[in-house]
Amino acid sequence: MKISVIGCGYLGAVHAATLASMGHSVVGIDVDHAKVEQLARGAAPFHEPGLDELLQDGSATGRLRFSTDIADAACAQMHFLCVGTPQDKASDAADLSYLVSATRALLPHLAAGAVVVGKSTVPVGTVDMLRGVLGRRPDVLLGWNPEFLRQGTAVKDSLVPDRLVYGVDGGKAAAFNRSTGAPVGVAAALDAVYEPLLRAGIPRQVCSCATAELIKSASNAYLATKISFINAVSELCDASGADVAELSEAMGLDPRIGNRYLHAGLGFGGGCLPKDIRSFRAQATSHGVDAVADWMQLVDSVNLGQRQRTVDLAADLCGGTVAGRTITVLGASFKPDTDDIRDSPALDVADRLAAAGAHVTVTDPKAVNNAWRRYPRLRFEANATRALEEAELVLLLTEWDEYRRLSPAVAGSLVRRRVLLDARNALDAAAWQAEGWVVRGLGTSAAGGSFYPTDAPVPASA
Ligand SMILES: NC(=O)c1ccc[n+]([C@@H]2O[C@H](COP(=O)([O-])OP(=O)(O)OC[C@H]3O[C@@H](n4cnc5c(N)ncnc54)[C@H](O)[C@@H]3O)[C@@H](O)[C@H]2O)c1
């Protein structure tokens, strides 16, 4: 099938490359010239494992190309909207202006009977609003197919998704021919697109557009809830001397609970969960559902609270204040296996430490280039060994495998003081303690050992 993908960021670039790998002829459209130029060369404009290979395969087969000219979408019968829906600058709501302008730009290029399907994460009611934008084209079909891929595993998630959700006009009842049971309209078009996935047994759920919009919002809200729940409990663990790692391991063995997203630490960031729970809150408020709005407010504030909690713990470990201390932060990206620094908890904490007078060096395997211009108070060092030299306190803030594998003996030979705050509870505290490190985590004070001695002097060089 001839397909266009409008918006080739973290979602769209992966979607376009995945569709080409399924045998479709795909054109990816983006307004960002540099991004398009890079994608056209078969190079991902961001770090995403496996994407370069998929892009190169797509261009080698001739099935995948990229353009900045929306007119190049005219050849397609199916169009996926994948542009950003960031948080509005003045409120918690999602900013839908990119979606509206992309749809307006596409409008004159839509063939008769074309199908337009959104994948961006949007508030409930967005499809109705976009139908207004497409108003003069009643022949064009509109649906929603929310995306669940995760950065860092996006290629795998797209090639083998957990499920496909189709939001169609009139819901399930309207999606199938009454006598034959065969899918019609948007559902039939999406079945044709995803035929290899359906053949492989990936489940698909057909529902109304409003339900599809809310499935994505509610899924992210639930994941965020689970993370903030265990983080709130980890504070109780710290206050009471319990150990959150042991607690969550035992809780997770209950199949009704499960251990995914039940790992206490610095909390979530990135370009999706934070803005999505705020948008969900705004949606609930506008529909008068205060319980959901209040819930999301709490989840958000618990999550953001982990950042100051980490800064406060760092100050404790430095004897009351970080001012004048030399601190090394391991990790800058908002999570491992990506170079995305949007709302990165690691950089937020590092910047707060620097604002409090610490000399902060941040290292990261992939994200240093994205981060250094935006954080002038921080020093960046791509090489972890050099970054650790002379540190009085080491903070693990993004749990890259490279940091999980750090040798406590080697790291200990580089730093000035062996003090570690593992804000992701990712390292083997016992192994680090065995090498003479004072180790603290979030909610693991029972296992973490004693505080750093409060009388440690600020070095003269500070
Ligand atoms: N990043 C993820 O892991 C992920 C996962 C699931 C869903 N989503 C959702 O997907 C959407 C996109 O997210 P993202 O992370 O890819 O954002 P992004 O900022 O990386 O990409 C958006 C792209 O859209 C382009 N764009 C903006 N206006 C355009 C226009 N008029 N025409 C063509 N291109 C245009 C931008 O230049 C940018 O490249 C959001 O709604 C997000 O919530 C993202």
Automatic annotation (TrEMBL):
SMART domains from the UniProt entry: UDPG_MGDP_dh_C
Transmembrane segments: none
Sites where the protein binds substrate: K216, Y261, L262, H263, A264, G265, G269, K335
Oxidoreductase is among the record's keywords: yes
EC number: 1.1.1.22
BP-aspect Gene Ontology terms: polysaccharide biosynthetic process; UDP-glucuronate biosynthetic process
Enzyme class: oxidoreductase
GO terms for MF: NAD binding; UDP-glucose 6-dehydrogenase activity
Gene3D superfamilies per the UniProt record, alphabetical: Cytochrome c1, transmembrane anchor, C-terminal (1.20.5.100), NAD(P)-binding Rossmann-like Domain (3.40.50.720)
Binding positions for NAD(+) per the UniProt entry: D30, K35, T85, T121, K275, R342
Catalysed reaction, written as an equation: UDP-alpha-D-glucose + 2 NAD(+) + H2O = UDP-alpha-D-glucuronate + 2 NADH + 3 H(+)
Family: Belongs to the UDP-glucose/GDP-mannose dehydrogenase family.
Protein's recorded name: UDP-glucose 6-dehydrogenase
Species annotation: Pseudarthrobacter equi
Taxon lineage: Bacteria, Bacillati, Actinomycetota, Actinomycetes, Micrococcales
